[in-house]
Amino acid sequence: MTRVLFVVTAADYWTLKDGTKHPTGYWGEELAMPHKIFTEAGWEITIATPGGQRPTLDRISMGRTAGLPGTLREVAAYLATIQDVLDVPASLGEVDPDDFDLVFYPGGHGPMEDLSHDEVSGALLTKQLASGRPLGLLCHGPAALLAARNEDGSWPFAGYRITALSNVEEKLNSFGRKASWFLEDRLRESGAHYAKGTLPLLPHIEVDRTLYTGQNPGSAKQLANRMVADLAH
């Protein structure tokens, strides 16, 4: 059986440029849809967060502007079925990526606050990449890549083709314009070959060797289905 480690942010706010703390967490669709697709494929999933803290659902991700009504109903219904698991996640520092076939990071603004500089997560990502096993990150999830480092201090994802939420998409929200830094910019500055779709908000994924990334919440299903298809071979 394929075993998946789902690494979810534990942050419930995002500190903006003016010092205010915007309430956030994980994005509903980005966690629910890949989790559902992986489960339907017969995969076994373990959810872990920094310190084993209970993750917070970003309420904006369930609002009317977050997606089509049918999708939001599907997301809410599925999250309800796994709430007991979300309530008691494993502690990220106590899991070994070698015990899993795949590591996956959903997004939400939370990773910008905690996973972007979490050393435990960064070490896990470095080890996962070196292992040659698949690694998937979605929307703001790739912020976690920024914490990864090789022993010599270099960035292991330099030269990889990566997508993540674009600057244009970030600025569509009034609070997003107040960000102290933008993920697209930081990935480019770190040495990634950042790529994005032609139009904002439409699904877009990138696959470079064993690294799978999705640009935005609407990419969740496409990214998860691609990973299931590739691992089936």
UniProtKB/TrEMBL annotation:
Protein name listed in UniProt: Type 1 glutamine amidotransferase domain-containing protein
Pfam families: DJ-1_PfpI (PF01965)
GO MF terms, alphabetically ordered: glyoxalase III activity; transferase activity
InterPro entries assigned: Class_I_gatase-like (IPR029062), DJ-1/PfpI (IPR002818), Prot/Nucl_acid_deglycase (IPR050325)
Gene Ontology BP terms: methylglyoxal catabolic process to D-lactate via S-lactoyl-glutathione
Gene3D superfamilies (UniProt xref): 3.40.50.880
Source organism of this protein record: Kitasatospora xanthocidica
GO CC annotation terms, alphabetical: cytoplasm
Stretches assigned to the DJ-1/PfpI domain: 30-228
